[in-house]
């Protein structure tokens, strides 16, 4: 390895660590103040959003994901796990309550951030873990660093993540994997690098329900990895829209529809085009960020996520 490549890898690792620490910090600062509770799913709150799909909502609590339960005649697919074993056990309990087939359970995660993936240890040994090749690679390269960044943010997170490890994949796919749960067909789509390199979307065909992860939701896009690409993100949005979903369940926040996809495309396109124009005028990334944040704030609010999108757009602009 040359000194230049080593320096580049070190810089990327430093940037990733800063991104992960910022993300975890935002989650912790916004946590409810109930002592010892932390970012917990609420048992008994699963909502039926279509004939075969249930969602355990995040109830607006930062650090809690929207968890999906897709029920077929022969098997059940769970989407995301919650943060640590205690949350994972709540999901397992909910599968039983909504009538899911607990004898044949598949598990997939929208990405490998701890609140989505590190509750998998609570699932029975018979559970089949399905991961994209990109997600497996991300875990190998950065999984422990990601988990540790969250553990260090608070005593509550450290407690919830005690002993948590990334579950090995039983099924590994490249671009797409199809599951037949018995009368319910599901497509698992490798989407990264958007929010993370291992972003995965889940589409329930007959029901028209899309689990979009962080690739499309109400909150602004979060570029959480040095590998995140604005250009690729726009391509991913086109791919999701072509599925024709009726219901879009994001990683966090309210359930919606294709407006999430449309709004993300409008925001990212605006950032891409304005950043490229300003860069062509010779402005620095700091100057572009200051100008664009001022322009975007009236419509999108004061979000630190704008900065990440602008930095990536500046790097990709020619």
CATH superfamily of the largest domain: Ribonuclease Z/Hydroxyacylglutathione hydrolase-like
The arrangement of helices and strands along the chain is: HEEEEHEHEHHEEEEEHEHHH
Q: Give the total of domains.
A: 2
Poorly predicted tracts of residues:
1-15, 21-36
Secondary structure topology:
Layout (H helix, E strand, L loop, with lengths): L2 H27 L17 E2 L4 E4 L10 E5 L4 E4 L4 H14 L7 E4 L5 H4 L10 E5 H19 L3 H6 L10 E3 L2 E5 L4 E6 L9 E5 L4 E5 L16 H13 L4 E4 L8 H22 L4 H16 L4 H12 L2
Parallel strand pairs: 4-5, 5-6, 6-7, 11-12
Antiparallel strand pairs: 1-2, 2-3, 3-4, 8-9, 9-10, 10-11
Keywords:
single chain, 318 residues, alpha/beta, Metallo-beta-lactamase, Chain A, 2 domains, 7-stranded mixed β-sheet, 5-stranded mixed β-sheet, 9 helices, 42% helix, globular, disordered N terminus
Q: Can you offer a commentary on this structure?
A:
This protein has 318 residues and is of the alpha/beta class. The chain has two domains: 9-257, 4-Layer Sandwich (Metallo-beta-lactamase, Chain A); 263-318. Helix content is 42%, strand content 16%. The strands form two sheets. The chain has a seven-stranded mixed beta sheet with strand order 1-2-3-4-5-6-7. It has a five-stranded mixed beta sheet with strand order 8-9-10-11-12, covered by helices on one side. Strand 11, helix 6 and strand 12 (247-250) form a beta-alpha-beta unit. Helix 1 crosses helix 4 and helix 7 packs across helix 9. It is globular. The two termini are 28 Å apart. Residues 1-15 and 21-36 have low confidence and may be disordered.
């Amino acid at each position: 390895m040359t000194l230049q490549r080593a320096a580049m890898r070190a810089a990327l690792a430093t940037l990733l660590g800063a991104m992960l620490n910022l993300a975890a910090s935002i989650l912790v600062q916004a946590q409810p103040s109930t002592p010892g509770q932390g970012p917990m799913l609420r048992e008994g709150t699963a909502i039926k959003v279509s004939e075969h799909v249930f969602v355990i909502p995040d109830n607006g609590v930062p650090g809690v994901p929207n968890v999906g339960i897709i029920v077929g005649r022969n098997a059940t697919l769970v989407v995301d796990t919650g943060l640590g074993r205690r949350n994972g056990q709540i999901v397992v309990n909910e599968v039983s309550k909504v009538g899911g087939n607990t004898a044949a359970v598949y598990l997939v995660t929208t990405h490998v951030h701890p609140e989505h993936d590190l509750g998998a240890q609570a699932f029975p040994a018979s559970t089949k873990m399905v991961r994209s090749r990109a997600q497996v690679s991300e875990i190998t390269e950065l999984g422990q660093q990601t988990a540790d960044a969250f553990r260090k943010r608070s005593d509550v997170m450290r407690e919830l993540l005690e002993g948590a490890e990334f579950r090995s994949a039983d099924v590994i796919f490249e671009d797409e994997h199809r599951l037949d749960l018995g009368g319910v067909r599901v497509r698992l789509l490798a989407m990264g690098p958007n929010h993370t390199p291992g972003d995965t979307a889940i589409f329930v065909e007959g029901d028209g329900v899309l689990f979009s992860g962080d690739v499309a939701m109400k909150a602004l896009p979060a570029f959480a990895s040095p590998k995140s690409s604005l250009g690729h993100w726009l391509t991913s949005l086109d791919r999701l829209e072509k599925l024709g979903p009726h219901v879009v369940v994001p990683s966090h926040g309210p359930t919606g529809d294709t407006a999430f996809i449309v709004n993300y495309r409008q925001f990212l396109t605006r950032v891409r085009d304005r950043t490229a124009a300003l860069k062509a005028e010779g402005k620095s990334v700091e100057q572009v960020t200051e100008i664009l944040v001022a322009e975007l704030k009236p419509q999108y609010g004061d979000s630190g996520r704008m900065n990440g999108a602008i930095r990536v757009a500046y790097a990709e602009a020619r």
